[in-house]
Amino acid sequence: MKTIFGKRDIKLNTGSIINKYGIYFILVLLLVLCSALSGNFFTVKNLLNISRQISVTTMIALCEMVLLICGGINLSAGAQLCLSGIISIYAYLATESVMLAVVVAILVGSFLGVINGVITCYLGVPAFITTLATNMIFRGVINVWTGGQTIWGIGGYSILGQGYIGIVPIPMIIMIIVVALIGFITKNTILGRRLLAIGGNQNAASASGVNVKMNTFIAFIISGALAGLAGAVHLSRLSMGIPTAGEGYEMDAIAGAVIGGTSMTGGVGSALGVLIGSLIIGVINNILNLTNVTSYVQDIIKGLIIVVAVLLDIQTKRNFK
Q1: DSSP characters for 188-255?
Q2: CA 1 to chain centre
Q3: Helix or strand or coil: residue 151?
């Protein structure tokens, strides 16, 4: 008598379950481990601190995801964050309007995304090289603009990163709104489906009538806008404009995106997954700090996490094709 499900069916079903729910199991196990390692982990103060920290990481991870799903990458996200945040501080000091300053940050980030998009999509330079170069350019602009000096006295602008609505930190509210918005765009809009199609198979997407250059260009703009918003939140949380803000944030962002299920080879990714991935990175950073692990060792651990996440992504695709 033949079985209803063959070995391949069981294999595919198991792989589907792992892909869909594995990250949640990892998060639960990590939370249990952290609570055992430090009695301060599950305190209200510490959990709120984690929520504020991951708000910026999540927005930058979404900035990466939007490009990764269509086969791109953004190595200038941290510099975009910093430059957008710095200019938004100047806008606040000139107008004393937090809302206007946030709009300025998003517009500046979008403009920086346009620069990356034009160079990559219409001049034909690979995204890796483009954003590596613009990372240095944007950092140079920041130092020229500020003279390498920290901007102090931003006053009421700090409410964006430090304020609360009830007991909920404002950065957390902004993060949830952004996750919902990007989730809607990638799952329920034509643009989102086109970006996923481009990342899955660019030639097939082009053959089916998708304008690869234009849609990828739009992805660069969205990515820049997210980095700009993250910059406003991050610098307002710091209560100062630091020219070195955002350095190395690309590592946490890419790690959060990949751990959250976004494929480095394109075609796969979700905003909710990025949120969970960023939460995992945030929890790891937090417990390492609580247990007094040095920053050098933290860098090693985060680097290993990225390697393992990418290897798992490659292995999963190989096993469940």
Answers
A1: HSHHHHHHHHHHH-HHHHHHTT--HHHHHHHHHHHHHHHHHHHHHHHHHHHTSB-TTTTTTHHHHHHH
A2: 51
A3: strand
What residue ranges do the domains of the chain occupy?
Answer: 43-318
Span 244-257, pLDDT tens digits:
998 888 888 888 89
Q: Which of 26, 169, 154 is nearest to 102 (CA)?
A: 154
Q: Cβ neighbours of residue 178 under 8 Å, at least 6 residues apart?
A: 58, 59, 62, 226, 229
Expressed in angstroms, the distance from the first to the final Cα of the chain is 28
Q: Which token pair is 127?
A: 């995204």
CATH T-level fold of 43-318: ABC transporter involved in vitamin B12 uptake, BtuC (1.10.3470)
The arithmetic mean of pLDDT across residues 108-127, rounded, is 96
List beta partners, residue 165: 168
Other C-beta atoms lying within 10 Å of the C-beta of residue 279:
22
* Three-state DSSP string of 52-112: HHHHHHHHHHHHHHHHHCCCCCCCCHHHHHHHHHHHHHHHHHHHCCHHHHHHHHHHHHHHH
* pTM confidence score: 0.88
